[in-house]
Amino acid sequence: MSDALISAGRLLRGTKNTPVTILFTDGQPDSTTSTIMEAGRLKDQGARLVTIGIGADVDGKYLKSLASAPGDYYFVNDIYGLQEIFRTIMNGLKTL
The whole model's pTM is what? Predict the structure, then answer.
């Protein structure tokens, strides 16, 4: 997870609009500490971080702590639930 957040931070540098990063994950970080640190850096750059946990073993509490706000965390059991989540996220982005 931390590598993905580092990559997102690099890609979003210098953007003029409010950057939004959506992190899809099984909820099992490669390194809890570095993932928290990189999520903080990304948010400090002004990015909105949305986390989506997929699968039965997701640590929802952890992913909520990474997200920019409690409402920026979502969970689905499998990929079939993603369409509704994307709709919800896209409707929320219209207000940015």
Answer: 0.90
